[in-house]
Design brief:
With 308 residues, the chain is of the alpha/beta class. It has two domains: 137 residues, D-Maltodextrin-Binding Protein, domain 2; 99 residues, Periplasmic binding protein-like II (D-Maltodextrin-Binding Protein, domain 2, 3-Layer(aba) Sandwich). The protein is 50% helix and 24% strand. It contains nine helices and twelve strands. The strands form two sheets. Strands 1, 5, 6, 7, 8, 9, 10, 11 and 12 form a nine-stranded mixed beta sheet that branches. A three-stranded antiparallel beta sheet has the order 2-3-4. Helix 2 packs across helix 8 and helix 6 packs across helix 7. It comes from Kineothrix alysoides. This is L-cystine transport system substrate-binding protein. Pfam families: SBP_bac_3. Keywords: Signal.
Length: 308
């Protein structure tokens, strides 16, 4: 009887042990299943994040590529021999005020890229008409004839000025009345002559006008050498030429005339697009004061229309 009791107790104890092991294994299996399920959820979330990031990255690349694809390459006609507005420097680099203003426009509107082609003045409008160029940048004024045939920017980017130029340090000349009995040198056929010729005609031809076949460089040399007392020209051009030759001259008196200059385009769909885009950029440069600052840095004076 005693053996049966002991055997029964032993069987009960073993059942408890095996039952406990089964429960532990069941709990462990359940816990493992939960961990696996949680890992799968994390992996699924990470996969979605990766997919989203890839999609966003792809969209960003697509936008970036679209922006590149939308860049307009513009062929610009310019002389390249008209210092200080368009010329090739000692490093064989095309520069000049007109050129650098367009490079500033590029900074404002990256959808524009300008490529410059140089040629003589008489070839510029021919090139524009034949689609060799899409625009011109060469100190071009807005005559009625040009406005009828071409698009011009609404915003002028520079003012061409006509002013008396004398030897640096002279204080006795500030206007035409101070030149009575003195000599004014002029280049034959130059548009800068008009003010002097008109004043002379209205005042009894009291000025001595001396005409030269040579350009402004020769006239500046004649001024420094004392052969003439003054000439008429754009001070920006005169000072640039004088610096190259090492001549000490300066503008004096009031500006005798002011002529706004513009970028010019063919009258077609592309021309209109370029006109509007460049006008918008110029407007920002003008409003911010950047264009006036740049003009002063380039010429020593503000020759924008806002600098009058």
């Amino acid at each position: 009887m005693k053996k049966k009791i002991v055997l029964g107790a032993l069987l009960i104890a073993m059942a408890g042990v095996f039952g406990g092991c089964g429960k532990a294994e069941s709990e462990t299996a359940a816990k493992s299943a939960e961990e696996v399920s949680g890992t799968e959820a994390v992996n699924e979330s990470e996969a979605k994040d990766i997919e989203t990031q890839a999609k966003e990255s792809g969209e960003a690349e697509a936008v970036s590529q679209a922006a590149v694809d939308e860049v307009i390459t513009v062929s610009v006609g310019t002389m390249g021999t008209y210092s200080p507005f368009s010329y090739v420097d000692e490093n064989d680099y095309l520069t000049g005020y007109d050129i650098e203003v367009l490079r500033k426009v590029e900074e404002v509107d990256p959808s524009l890229h300008f490529e410059f082609t140089t040629g003589p003045w008489e070839s510029l409008f021919v090139g524009l008409d034949s689609d060799k160029f899409q625009m011109l940048a060469n100190q071009i004024s807005g005559t009625d004839e040009r406005r009828q045939k071409y698009y011009l920017t609404e915003n002028p980017y520079h003012t061409a000025v006509n002013q008396l130029i004398v030897k640096k340090g002279r204080t006795d000349i500030n206007g035409f009345e101070d030149l009575v009995g003195k000599k004014i040198g002029l280049t034959v056929g130059d548009a800068h002559n008009i003010e002097a010729e008109k004043w002379n005609e209205e005042n009894g031809n009291s000025l001595t006008l001396v005409y030269y076949e040579e350009d402004i460089t020769t006239l500046l040399q004649e001024i420094v050498n004392g052969k003439i007392d003054a000439t008429l020209n754009d001070p920006a051009v005169a000072i640039s030429k004088a610096e190259i030759q090492g001549l000490d001259v300066e503008p004096v008196g009031e500006r005798l005339s002011e002529t706004p200059v513009y970028f010019i385009f063919k009258q077609d769909e592309l021309g209109k697009t370029l006109q509007e885009k460049i006008d918008t950029a110029l407007g920002q440069l003008i409003e911010s004061g950047e264009l006036s600052k740049f003009s002063t840095e380039w010429f020593g004076a503000d020759y924008t229309p806002q600098g009058k």
